[in-house]
Amino acid sequence: MTRWLSSIRNSEALGSVAIFALLFATYFVLKGCRYSFFEAGNLATNVLPLVVVGLAQYFVVLVRGIDLSLGPIMAVSGSLAAVLFPLGIVPAIAIALAAGVLAGALNGLLIARLSLSPIVVTLATMSVWDGVALIVLPVPGGTIPAFLQAVLTSEPALLPMSLILLVGFALLGTWIMSTRFGLQLRAIGGDEIAAEASGVKVARIRFFAYVLAGFLAACAGLYFAISTMAGSPIIGDGYVLPSIGAVVLGGVPLIGGRGSPIGVVMGALILTIIGSLLYFADLADFYQSLINGVILIVVVGAAAVRDWAREALAR
Amino acid sequence: MSESTTSAPGEDRQRALRAFLAARAAPLASLAVILLMLVVCNVMAPGFVSVTNTMHIAQLSAFLGIAAIGQTLVILSGGIDLSIAWTITGTACVYAQVSQGRPAMLLLGLAAALATGLVIGLVNGIGVSKFRISPIVMTLGMNNVIQGATLLYTDGTPSGGVADEGRFFATGFIGPFSVLVLLWIALSIAVIVILRVTRGGRQLLGVGENPLVSYLSGVRNDRVLIAVYGLSGLSAALAGVLYASFSGASFLGMGDTFVLPAIAAVVIGGASIYGGRGGYGGTIIGAFFLTLLTTLLSIVNFSAGARGVIYGGVIIAALLLNRFTQGAAR
Q1: In this complex, do B133 and A300 lie within 8 Å of one another by their Cβ atoms?
Q2: Is residue B100 part of a domain?
Q3: What is the DSSP string of A213-278?
Q4: In this structure, what is the dihedral angle of CA atoms A74, A76, A79, A80, given to the nearest 10 degrees?
Q5: What is residue A2's predicted lDDT score, i.e. its pLDDT?
Q6: Does residue A290 form part of some domain?
Q7: B276 min Cα distance to partner chain A (Å)
Q8: Total structural domains within chain A
């Protein structure tokens, strides 16, 4: 438990928390200083897929990887579920999640076992899963049981379900990082050779990082399909950049080894609330992608500038 | 006494030949598959392998081949450029919108489009080298920026057009030869010569092979990288201009179908994705291979989904082939 607390306290996520707080305060004031649980639930509903796929990206980035196929994996799992729900809720969900695990295992096999480049491997599997999603479900649709959406929109203990899930996934991520597996992920990202020398099975842990990412992406896809009441074979493209953006905005360096799940959650929240602010400012959709791109470049570039400053001061 | 001096000269030659073949396994294998595909196409559509149709395939390959020039250079330098999708679309929109389909404005449109591409590339290069932003984040972010900028510039609906004089470069023929293919051949020779002969080319390979060694031997790595990404932006812009000339107009998303094939062409060409090894010759084969594959898949009427799966599978196969042959040769 103390390890849990310390991982939250000394996290690199403080900057992201501050940025989110600032943006949220702006939004709050613009909305006329009113905010209800209902709106919080809406925000949580909108941000949840990004949070989950961002966490997926985070585990891969931790071991110095990147996964461009996570969006298409979301599309595959959502499409599969939408097609299979008539067969029964449990098998549909099980197969959708298993597809994510399999997809992650394929990435892990190629990247961790055969040491191929993560960028090119996941670009290729991105094309494969985009294709599979289109084969499974050529046009958006399928059937989602109303019962499942009712569960998602329910309010147990007066709290919106999406908010509970959001906190749940954040805690899940934090818990994983407090386990031995999480420590090994960090060790590999920090110094692979040192990790290997101290007994970490680098290839195996890296493999499981991709498997975990595939599983989480499938969860995100499943959630997206249920909350929108339809499967869509093309949602994936919209999540490739934001999933990396959430990681980067969460203060996680792409060279791996550092950063916390809470930061990633904050990163996803920041991206989503910027979207809301743009909507509020009545700016065209055109600006969303432009601003997302600029933010990503500026945040990563600023990290480099900060490193320079530190080096200059240390000299 | 070392092994090589005891062995017969014939064995040495054999070993050299084996190393030569191993380093080129993927392009050689794809050449074999190209021939196979030509046979299959000719069976499926008799008369497929004719001078006119071969020239047509070469013409289609040229767009990909030219877009992949920059990608080859960037990958050789150890990076990747994911921004070419919207660089192609954006510069095509600039070209069509500035020239407005008027012959007198063609050169102005061309200059504006190429300058836009160059600036995009240079900014990528500065981000990657000076600010040490990882190439994937820099170029993916840049892709989004250009997407937004293009939507704002065109207000969501690209306008203008390309005059017939401009279309000549993409669709015209001199005798039996497509102008576009001739242009591609000229560019290919230039790129290969620059890579193999000039100091800049050697510096580029050096940066890709080992940036630290390159830096310590006095090469200004950052300048090399800025130039490389600049050239990538320029070649994407050229591909955009030519593609717009081919279609007679620009449309949103026209560059989207180039990113994956351009990277795939380089990988199939046998270049190491970690930089330093490979060249443009392999990319030419890769571009042919992929264009022929796309043609074949559309002849046999595969769905878009199946095509995506096969495309991804081919890239993974090429990666594995490179991995096992080059890994052994090293």
Answers
A1: yes
A2: yes
A3: HHHHHHHHHHHHHHHHTSB-TTTTHHHHHHHHHHHHHTT--TTSS---HHHHHHHHHHHHHHHHHH
A4: -120
A5: 54
A6: no
A7: 14
A8: 1
- By C-alpha distance, the chain B residue nearest A67 is B136
Which pLDDT tens digit goes with each residue over B152-200?
A: 898 888 888 887 777 888 888 887 888 899 999 999 999 999 988 888 8
Domain presence at residue A292: no
Query: CATH no. for residue A72?
Result: 1.10.3470
Q: Which of A127, A134, A296 faces B137 most closely, judged by CB atoms?
A: A296
The whole-number pLDDT of residue B284 equals 92
Domain assignment present for A267: yes
Average pLDDT of the residues of chain A: 85
Inform me whether the pLDDT recorded for B328 exceeds 50: no
Residue B2 pLDDT: 44
Domain annotation covers residue B326: no
Say if B277 falls within a structural domain.
no
pLDDT band at residue B3 using 50, 70 and 90 as cut-offs: very low
Average pLDDT over residues B59-84: 93
Count of alpha carbons within 13 Å of A126, Cβ hemisphere only?
Answer: 24
Going by DSSP bridges, is the β-strand pair B173-174/B177-178 parallel, antiparallel, or unpaired?
antiparallel
CA distance A251 to A222: 27
A77-115: pLDDT as tens digits: 999 999 998 888 899 999 999 999 999 999 999 999 998
Residue B148 to residue A116, Cβ atoms within 8 A = no
> Is B31's Cβ below 8 Å from some Cβ in A?
no
Instruction: Kindly state whether residue B272 falls inside one of the protein's structural domains.
Output: no
Its ipTM equals 0.83
Domain that holds residue B154: 49-255
Report residue A122 as tokens.
């996941």
Domain count, chain B: 1
The range of the structural domain enclosing residue A224 comes to 2-285
Query: What's the one-letter identity of residue B181?
Result: V
The pLDDT of residue B7 is 53
